[in-house]
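Milestone M4 deliverable, item 7.
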Amino acid sequence: MNVWIAIGVTALGCYAVKLAGLLVPAHTVERPYVRRLAALLPVALLAALTAQQTFADGHALVLDARAAGLGAAAVALVLRAPFLLVVAAAVVVTAGVRVLGG
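Output delivered:
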């Protein structure tokens, strides 16, 4: 039953956040600072999620095959590779390191 309570609370929380966003006055959202923050916030959240999923295992810092895959993806991005090639490089390097026992 605890799972359903968590699902209900999450659904209500999502609805409340969406409602709060609709209640914000339009002139507040149109300010340059707010627009810049709204553009940068998803990138920062995605970077934090990527770092947490790559380098954390519970409360411990971990350097394993995922870190090598992220490094390969970063190199592919620096070389301006297409997105699918970036993902493929990360997958191949991560799988290769795991197969080799890393």
